[in-house]
Amino acid sequence: MAKTYRIAVLPGDGIGPEVTEATLKVLDAVQKASKDLKLTLVHGEAGLNCIEKYGTNVPAKTVEMLKATDACLKGPMTTPEEAAAPRSAAVTIRKAFNLYANVRPCKALPGVWALSPDIDLIIVRENTEGLYFGKEFEVSPGKGVAMRVVTQKASEKVARLACELALNRRRHVTCVHKRNILRVTDGIFREAVFKVAKDYPSVKVDEVYVDAMAMRLIKEPQRFDVIVTTNMFGDILSDEAAQLVGGLGLAAGANIGDDYGMFEPVHGSAPKYAGKNKVNPTATILAAKMMLEYLNETKASNLVQKAVEQVLREAKVRTYDLGGTSTTHEVGEEIARKILENASL
Ligand code: NAD
């Protein structure tokens, strides 16, 4: 009997709707190709586009809708920058569902320039606290203070997830922090990682300061397997890492909690490209692939990965960021076509 999942779809702002549409084409092909998988898509609203209508970027009815689904596919959303505006929709959803780990793979892909062909690392970042905790104050005119919250509990959770991932990879976790300066907060984070690591004797755990890590990602990225770090460090390092293997158009991320997962491209809403049918949908397609993996639909997830790699290797249909002239829509169509073709072989 076909296994059915309810998937929330939040297309978001800017280029969000077009990359999401291309991804849904691919998910449609996956369902046709693997007859024992059914995805019931539930479309919802979130993002800047909601503020005028609902007064917020994550309406209560969207949160209720997400609660009734197995996972969420999320497009990028524009974050309003005014002090009084609602905070980032992604941050709100991550907190609401305690999606404590943000997992961003960075792997060299066929047919795409990479700094080194053997790059294969994952950045796992704590996703609910750190400097992105969202508490900032202007204590007096011209003097601002931001809170950097780090708890042992959240740090241990993300460390455990990093060690679990490493078990099925090269069994190497690198803890990235800045404890020499941020002695309290990064002291707690570091201690939590090394404490959890004791439960994983087969995993080698070492540590690197974040500034050194920014350099070593360029110098010797192939030496890293799983990098675990705090929220903002991970956000910055994962954009850097994306650029080592083809850029933001290919970088996907998973937000993982104990009971829910939200999957999205690493990139933002790129407003200047909105509606131009020009940007690369592959990052969102690979996010959907991570969602299938999370749902334990390994066969379906492999179908997507294989098709993406074939299309990249052939280098006939690709968007401007990879030196091509194809549209967003064409890339989605081509990956979907490959999935169906592979299934009929
Ligand atoms: P961005 O990632 O949207 O775009 C930066 C540049 O990267 C683009 O101008 C483009 O050159 C390139 N790019 C991004 N996506 C691409 C794609 N799919 N294909 C090809 N090229 C691509 O970053 P930004 O301009 O700093 O942010 C725009 C908005 O997105 C901001 O409001 C920001 O807060 C928001 N944002 C949201 C999320 C999220 O929803 N999780 C993540 C990051 C940024």
What does this structure look like?
It is a single chain. The longest helix is centred in the first third of the chain and has 18 residues, at 16-33. Helix 1 crosses helix 9, helix 1 packs parallel to helix 11 and helix 7 packs parallel to helix 8 (231-244). The protein has 11 helices and 12 strands. The mean pLDDT is 96. It has 345 residues and is of the alpha/beta class. The radius of gyration is 20 Å and the shape is globular. Strand 11 (252-256) and strand 12 form a beta hairpin. It has a 10-stranded mixed β-sheet, with helices on both faces. Bound molecules: nicotinamide-adenine-dinucleotide. Nicotinamide-adenine-dinucleotide binds next to loops.
In short:
40% of the residues lie in helices and 20% in strands. With 345 residues, it is α/β, with parallel strands linked by helices. It has a ten-stranded mixed β-sheet, with helices on both faces. Strands 6-7 form a two-stranded antiparallel sheet.
